[in-house]
């Protein structure tokens, strides 16, 4: 079965480069296309007329015409323990953390709860067409074990880590510099590189980590340079003031992470809204990734991410839902909100920019573009099949579109999980339950 060849037929769309940099030449679109899969990897992508004769006799072909076939979406920042925090009323970051988030996260100490939330999150992501995500678990070591076990069972390529926090959180939610280090180390040994699982060293943010824990994180990074680092920065004014108060000797917020060796090529820093010129430069020099979380930044009233500035400063950008500060699991909905955030700043985002961002763009920002994010031969066959006319309003609107760019812009602006017909993980089709 492993070496068996199969194929998907439909309208293929994928990226080979950044459309913002090189325009139309960045995408590949094949109206009657065939995606050939062998052993869970892409074997070929191109014209059905050319590839059909190359298939061995009896190779199964799934006909998805007239639907779009794209690489699975990638979400660069999401919190597994917050699926029951989404849509909590009336607070900005620090109050929202204390009043809602830290309350729910304590429940992950209960037997079976992390398993339940992990299964729910993976179901919901896959139903939304997302096949890879960078995931924060809770402070409990078993929350990361539960998430990785569930992801490994499904063979999804996931990045995750146990949150480390040793202050400014309820006692039930804190570890210590030593236990956070030891637990992370154990999880890395158990999960990093096991099947498709990857580990992210996860000090939550400087507000909840003592200098001792930051130093312990630095040791983890030095000992495991192939692991990711994920954390938060410059999201909210009160948060920034608190961070500066706790680390008065640092140049600025980014300087705190720099001082502990946590700003590097594999570092994913959520939000990056209120950045100084020096901080942008520090990111560029370190090759660190700014993670833009549109629905969260709007919902928590945090501010407007300046993507143009990031480009200007040559800082890598990834995009993400940030559930449960964010309000949608859908990367399509996320990009519709990104468009509006850029509109408020006189910037723009074409449908090609948006669809690149959630596939090859995020893969490249994560340094995983040799594995996922496109239909180049040899990439893992994580695939989403989309019906742009899935809703009455969308079918109606599509009556008047004149070209692919317009059709895709309707898909990005009005689309969500209702447009997802099928999701494939390493070539295997899922019979996911629809969420609508
Ligand atoms: N900063 C520290 N923790 C969090 C979190 O859980 N969500 C968001 N949006 N920001 C944070
Ligand atoms: Zn977050």
UniProtKB/TrEMBL annotation:
GO molecular function, one term: guanine deaminase activity
UniProt cross-references to PANTHER family, sorted A to Z: GUANINE DEAMINASE
Species of origin: Bosea eneae
Keywords for this protein: Hydrolase, Metal-binding, Zinc
Name recorded for this polypeptide: Guanine deaminase
Pfam families per the UniProt record, alphabetical: Amidohydro_1 (PF01979)
Cofactor(s) needed: Zn(2+)
Record bears the keyword Nucleus: no
Enzyme Commission designation: 3.5.4.3
Family membership noted in the UniProt record: Belongs to the metallo-dependent hydrolases superfamily. ATZ/TRZ family.
Function: Catalyzes the hydrolytic deamination of guanine, producing xanthine and ammonia.
Lineage top rank: taxon: Bacteria
Reaction it catalyzes: guanine + H2O + H(+) = xanthine + NH4(+)
